[in-house]
Amino acid sequence: MTDTNILEVRVSRKLLLLLTVVGLVFLLAGLEIGYFQKIVGPDFTGDKVIVKWLFLFFSVICGGAIFINCLVYLFVPPLLLKVTPEKVTFGTGLRYNPFEISARLVEKAESFTKQSDLEVDGKRATVDGGAFLYLKNDPSIPSQLTTSMGIKYSNFKLEVESRYADLSGPEIAQKTKSILGLKN
User: Fold this and answer.
1) Which of 113, 116, 139, 154 has the fewest CB atoms nearer than 10 Å to its CB?
2) pTM score, two decimals?
3) Is residue 2 domain-resident?
4) Torsion angle of the four alpha carbons 67, 70, 76, 77, in this order, in degrees rounded to the nearest 10
5) Looking at the predicted structure, is the pLDDT value of residue 1 above 50?
6) Residue 16: which of 81, 77, 97 has the closest Cα?
7) Same domain, yes or no, for 67 and 108?
């Protein structure tokens, strides 16, 4: 991001580290119960062999896949959003496949707040939610797409959630406005 006319928003490495650890815990739990049996012992599941194999499948296969995928993403975080004066690119599908639209189709960029997911003493704080990019209703682009984690695109409105991004919502909105020359 050395160029001032380019904004790159990537998935937060803090989130990726957390997901890598979760995948590793599931992988190690599956390996322990299925193979090593140093902590739980061989009679942990008793005569319920089907439960053991279902847990092994879930924890080793799914936990291993989460661990490997997030470990790769930890070194090279996927691109959530890229804004240049010519085009806007955002991740779609399961693997953050880039989808490009013309930058002239962006009408407005703004940040938003939301209620926190955590509640303390019966109260929820208002926190940074992310940024919206409002697009023109143009037949050259779809009105909605299946997007990746941290991105929503529906009814010509692109939402980048700050809990997944490495930048805050106000930073994304302000830099998008300055790159595209938006007045709002």
Assistant:
1) 139
2) 0.84
3) no
4) -170
5) no
6) 77
7) no
